[in-house]
Amino acid sequence: MECTIAVVDSPSPLCQSPGVAMKIIFSTPTWVVSGVNSFTRRLMQGLSRRGHEVELLVIRQGPADSCELPLPGDVNVQHLAFDNTRSWWQSRWEALRDYLNQRAPAVYFPNYDFENAGVAAALDPGVAVIGVVHSEDPDHFEHLQRCGRFWDAALAVSRHLFDQMVRLAPEVQSRAHLVPYGVPIEGANPQAMRTPTDELRILYAGRFNEQQKRVPDLPKIARQLHANGIPFQLTLVGNGPGEERLRRDCAPFMGSGHIRILEAAGHDEVLAMYRDFDCLLLPSAYEGLPLALLESMASGCIPVASDIPSGIPDVIRHGLNGFVVPVGDISGFAAGLAALQGDRTLRQRMSAAAFETISGGAFSIDHVCARYEAIAQACLASAAAGAWARPPVHRPGSWTGDVVPPARLQISPDAYYSLKWQFDRQAGEVERLKGLLSSTSGPAGP
Fold first, then answer.
1. What is the pLDDT of residue 6?
2. What is the pLDDT of residue 414?
3. Residue 63 domain-assigned (yes or no)
4. What is the pLDDT of residue 228?
5. Does 30 share its domain with 163?
6. Which distant-in-sequence residues (6+ apart) come within 8 Å of 410 by Cβ?
7. Beta bridge mates, 155
8. Do 168 and 317 lie in a common domain?
9. Do both 265 and 347 map to the same domain?
10. CA pair distance 238, 233, nearest whole angstrom
11. Which of 66, 272, 283, 384 is buried most deeply by CB count within 10 Å?
12. Span 103-121, mean pLDDT?
């Protein structure tokens, strides 16, 4: 069986053979557990192997996130230096603009660096900007609509996102491309080497996020499986803001061994884990193209996923290489898992189909790296030939000049610090009154 994504051809001719080495810069404000970061790491590795000068530019915007992972040691990592003793927004933007312009000709991928990506409008023509819509998260569409007209190319990782992209920003249609994520492909289905067992081994790997990932559904699904007498073990790998509640809700099943929660592992460790599990659980409310879905299927894991419009229809054929279930349908998830547990032949057949879907070619990291390379080369060539020029910015009187940041950062520094002063003053007054009340209140009466 063959299930492959429909990859949209480039609207303009692409250079399909490797050319001169390019400088390629990916910026990021954080390095946390996420599909974007995992894919970016693989993409950087692949482009480096193809002879390009690739770097990850880290732009810290505040205290380190408690969920951050160690930065990759196998790629060139740089940290943007900027003067944080003055207006740190504008200082950061000026530093990034100068950093990129000094490296022209170069290719810049802002990814989800939404606050800093507004420098695209202020860059020299020799810096090609390639924006990627990774998810249905509103921030990605806001980024597109704010900055898309300044991008040399606009990429989307799923058919649904591509359609949304050209609808919301029709000015990018002539420069739009549909390029899915890519993953490493093994020569044969790893699951074929395993002997199926009665106990169904289920994996969830990703951020412990309640709104998007719906991790509170995981213990509910486990409870339904247990009530139906289905032998299973559910392993949760990750971290995130929902971890405390998740551990609390899973506690009744952790003592029995039905559920175990593992700390976020490195990307390579998670890749190795997939081959030991029968299926992957994806109860998300929305996604772009879940990287965990592609990676697990490449290891023969069978997905049981929410029926959401982005990514899932590109990959899963219900009942053939996985199951799709309405968002939040706990009984539906449990029924799909029970069907796999109760029929070893079905499990083997669907595992083989899942592997064949990903190994067909379009999702290979090598294929995807070649697509990124060709698009980047075409962007640089188009700019050099004057075939496409970044439009001017018309922002008379704006304190941000040619930089187009998110609306929440377009307030002037004077206005921001005035509001901050007022807030701090009021907060201090609240604390003073609390102290006064505490000092004047006597011991409680009988």
1. 39
2. 64
3. yes
4. 96
5. yes
6. 398, 400
7. 132, 177
8. no
9. yes
10. 17
11. 283
12. 95
Asked if 297 and 358 touch (Cβ cutoff 8 Å), the reply is yes
Summarised one tens digit per residue, pLDDT across range 158-209 is 999 999 999 999 999 999 999 999 999 988 888 877 777 899 999 999 889 9
pTM of full prediction above 0.90: no
Question: What is the full DSSP assignment across 61-78?
Answer: -SSPPTTB-PPPSSSEEE
Which residues, other chains included, contact 42 with Cβ-Cβ below 8 Å and sequence gap of 6+? 182, 183, 184, 267, 365
Distance CA 327, CA 329 (A): 6
Q: How many CB atoms lie within 10 A of CB 168?
A: 14
Q: Are residues 160 and 212 in the same domain?
A: no
Residue 15, pLDDT score: 39
pLDDT for residue 18 is more than 60: no
Calculate mean pLDDT across residues 283-301.
95
Please state, as a whole number, how many other Cβ atoms lie within 10 Å of the Cβ of residue 422.
Answer: 10
pLDDT attached to residue 65: 47
Q: How far apart are CA 84 and CA 275, in angstroms?
A: 46
At residue 141, φ and ψ (nearest 5 deg) are: -70, -35
Same domain, 370 and 297: no
Query: Cβ–Cβ contacts within 10 Å for residue 329, how many?
Result: 16
State the Cα–Cα distance between residues 347 and 31, nearest whole angstrom. Answer: 36
Between CA 151 and CA 175 the distance in angstroms is 8
Residue 394 structure tokens: 């018309």
Rounded to an integer, what distance in angstroms lies between the CA atom of residue 137 and that of residue 311? Answer: 13
- CATH code at position 290: 3.40.50.2000
On whether both 104 and 52 belong to a single domain, the answer is yes
β 176-178/153-156 pair status: parallel
- As for how many domains the chain has, the answer is 2
Kindly give the interhelix angle for 35-49 and 267-274, rounded to the nearest 10 degrees.
Answer: 100
Long-range contacts of 414-420 (CB under 8 A, 24+ apart): none
The answer to whether residues 354 and 377 belong to one domain is no
Give the lowest-confidence range in 234-238, 303-307, 428-432. 428-432
Q: From the DSSP assignment, how many helices (H) and strands (E) are in the chain?
A: 13, 13
158 and 265 both lie in a single domain: no
Domain annotation covers residue 12 = no
β-bridge mates for residue 108, sequence order: 25, 129
| Segments forming the whole domain that contains residue 110 | 23-184+364-385
d(CA 38, CA 436): 52
Residue 357, burial from CB neighbour count under 10 angstroms (0-12, 13-18, 19+): buried
Burial 175-196 (b: 16+ CB within 10 A, else e): bbbbbbbbbbbeeebbbeebeb
Burial of 16-34, coded b for 16+ CB within 10 Å and e otherwise, reads eeebeebbbbbbbbbbbbb
Query: Does some domain include residue 399?
Result: no
